[in-house]
Amino acid sequence: MDVISIRGNGPLRGTVSAAGSKNASLLAMAASIMADGPIALGGVPDVTDVSTLALLLGYLGVETKRSADGVVRLQTVDPSQVTADVETVSRMRASFCVLGPLVARRGRAAVALPGGCRIGSRPIDLHLQGLAALGANIRFEHGTVIAEAKKLHGVEMNLSGLNGPTVTGTANVLMAATLASGETILRGAAREPEIVDLCEFLNSIGARIEGAGGSTIRIRGVEQLSGGTYQVIPDRMETGTLLLAAAITGGDVTVRGARPEHLEALLAVLDDAGVMLDTGPNWIRAAIADRPLPFQFTALPYPGVPTDLQAQCTALATLAEGRSTIADQVFPDRFAHLAELSKLGACVDRCGSTAIIDGVHRLQGDVLQASDLRAAAALVLAGLVAHDVTTIRRAHHLFRGYDRLIEKLNSLGADVVLNPNESEAERRSQRRFSASQVAA
Ligand code: EPU
């Protein structure tokens, strides 16, 4: 069980580079099932969720290799495989995104119900509804979804659910629609930059998709998709987390390789909190000398403040000069971090899907337990500024989605150690997810 130890070490200062987007990479990797030639994806972060999907794709006859320059190459070597390994799917939600590509390209898919971060209810009804609308025959067998179709057919549908659009549901359905006959009009589509990136990648290998970034996406089916080379967008959640690390420590950090236009809602929150911001075409600087001011927001689908930054913003609010309220409309139960933050002396309460945070002057280090990826990041942020040592158990959650976060924070002046009771050699061998692990 990985443990992180953090000694509060004052303001973070300096410049770091953003990694490529985890969630955009996962979607593009799943889409590569449909490509008739080799795919080379640049910027794919070296994180466990990527390794897990690479493993799953290996079972599905797609060979995946990461080279030293960070490019991940994917190539179908055995298109007869249509059954996704149950244990691997259970580890990660995004693995369900192989369903649409498999049924569209290979005519059949058997994919177990997905696992993933425990952040509340995560149904898949919209994925299935969308694929069924395209003509897939869908049934359940012992907890596994079987989808079959000789050929999918374009159709008009609305994919929005009670909590708004679905990101991976939109991806699953639009990927399948690229190889359907005729035109699909997807209303209520997710507008996240990762969906736009997926569509740009698919268009670069021959798909005909228009309207990505809006809530109506039009997909004209094509006969086949080719191979190609593509660079994924920078990770806006990692960028946001690093900016929040600057803000919570009263520091001054520039994140290079970032896309400010993908983070406007977070930048507005940071501005409310009194953080001085400066941006260029591919960098963002956040600096603050005093305690943050209190702030309010509701996490919403894009272009709102992302739910994937809600926990980290909550960590910042624990030290604000007054009361902040933070609601989450996307995952109304995503508040496991509150109990852990309170162990550090944070004054937090919850009313339904809203956290109420009364800022305190200081946090005191303690032993915490991470429950999911973004909660883990929030606890790390709090640890950066807490007095004495904060220990975070179940820290493996962090490595699902952050590429070299500990190294990046330490390069800015933090004092974070992975598995402090192990030798340096053991730590090094644990920390990296090497090329051999990614190779399927
Ligand atoms: N929903 C349904 N039915 C469905 C699917 C979703 O009702 O069939 C509901 C969910 O319960 C939720 C809302 O729709 O209330 C939005 O969920 P969504 O489907 O968009 O989430 P997701 O696609 O499973 C992706 C990201 C998450 C991120 C959410 C929201 C990936 C691999 N995962 O999940 O990222 O929180 O969108 O933006 O892209 C993370 O990176 O830490 C992470 C959890």
Largest sheet, strands/sense/barrel: 4 strands, mixed
The total beta strand count reads 23
Q: List all distinct small molecules, including ions and cofactors, that are bound in this structure.
A: uridine-diphosphate-2(N-acetylglucosaminyl) butyric acid
Supply the number of helical segments: 16
CATH class membership of the largest domain:
Alpha Beta
Strand content: 15-25%
CATH topology of the largest domain: UDP-n-acetylglucosamine1-carboxyvinyl-transferase, Chain
Q: Terminal Cα separation, in Å?
A: 24 Å
Report on this model:
The structure is a single chain. This protein has helices at 22-31, 48-59, 86-91, 99-106, 125-133, 167-178, 193-204, 236-248, 264-272, 310-317, 336-343, 373-385, 396-399, 405-411, 424-431, 435-438; strands at residues 3-7, 13-17, 39-42, 62-66, 72-76, 108-112, 137-141, 144-148, 156-158, 183-187, 208-210, 216-220, 228-231, 252-256, 276-280, 283-287, 296-299, 323-328, 347-351, 354-358, 367-369, 389-393, 415-418. A hairpin with a 5-residue loop joins strand 4 and strand 5 (72-76). It has two domains: 3-19 and 234-428, UDP-n-acetylglucosamine1-carboxyvinyl-transferase, Chain (Alpha-beta prism), CATH 3.65.10; 22-233, UDP-n-acetylglucosamine1-carboxyvinyl-transferase, Chain (Alpha-beta prism). Strands 21-22-1-23 form a four-stranded mixed β-sheet. Helix 4 (99-106) runs parallel beside helix 6, helix 6 runs parallel beside helix 7 (193-204) and helix 8 (236-248) runs parallel beside helix 12. By secondary structure, the protein is of the alpha+beta class. Residues 431-440 have low confidence and may be disordered. Uridine-diphosphate-2(N-acetylglucosaminyl) butyric acid (EPU) is lined by residues 23, 26, 93-94, 117, 119, 121-127, 161-163, 166-169, 306-308, 330-331, 373-374, 401.
